Every structure is written in structure tokens, then in C-alpha cells.
Amino acid sequence: MNDSEARRRELLRRTRKLYDENHAVPAIHPRYGNLYHELYDGEEPAYSRDSFFIRLTLGILCFICYVWMDSSQATVANVSSSQIVNQIERQMDMEDIQEVWKNL
Fold first, then answer.
1. How far, in Å, CA of 96 to CA of 99, rounded?
2. CA-CA distances (angstroms) from residue 18 to 12, 22, 39, 60, 76?
3. How far apart are CA 74 and CA 80, in angstroms?
4. N or C: which end of the chain has fewer CB within 10 A?
5. Which residues pair with 76 in a beta bridge?
6. Which residues pair with 79 in a beta bridge?
7. Distance between CA 14 and CA 66 in Å, rounded?
């Protein structure tokens, strides 16, 4: 590496350092601050916003409880496993669903 090449690299390094230090966030609404940093800072968030594993765990837990209720013929809150199956298989009319939502 000759002198001119070393000088160019040093100037490039100084320029990058100069502009990186003065990098300011533009005037944006605070509501969009996280979105701006996520897009332009290039850093990944420290936490995961994905709730898949939580939902999967809850689903597995509900299934295990159902299998336990079915195998031991237990009744929890006056509901048996056969009543659960009947409610799942039951066909609902759209009018019934709309009536329930109107009452809420």
C-alpha cells in the first residue's frame, strides 16, 4: 500500500467517523420513533414480538387438559369432555352469532 492509498483510507475513515457522530434523528412524531429506529438503525430488537410459542404452549396445555378429562371421565366446572365435543361440532347460524355480538 502506497502513501496516497493510505491517505485516502485515513480520510475515508475520518469522514465516516465525522458523519456517524453527528447522525441525528429527524423530527418525527414520537409514536413513530421505534419504527424509525427499527428501519434505519439496522439493529434488531432485543426482544421477540412473536407470540407463536406462547400460543403453542397454551394450545398444548388445553389439549393435555382435554385428554386428561376424557381419560378420567372428570367433570370440570360442570362440563365433561363429551359436552366440549358437542359444542365444537354444533353448527351455528349466522343470525345467532350476530345476536350474541349485539348483546355485548
1. 5
2. 10, 7, 22, 54, 68
3. 7
4. C
5. 79
6. 76
7. 66
Q: Over the stretch 79-101, which tens digit does the pLDDT of each residue have?
A: 887 888 888 788 777 887 788 78
- From residue 6, alpha-carbon distances to 1, 14, 16, 17, 64 in Å are 7, 12, 15, 17, 67
pLDDT digits (tens, 9 = 90+) for 9-41: 888 888 777 776 555 666 677 777 777 767 766
| Three cell numbers written together for 62 | 388445553
Q: Is pTM beyond 0.70 here?
A: no
Nearest-angstrom CA–CA distance, 60 and 66? 10
Phi, psi (rounded to 5 degrees) for 9: -65, -40
DSSP E strand stretches across the chain: none
Q: Which residue has the cell 355480538?
A: 101
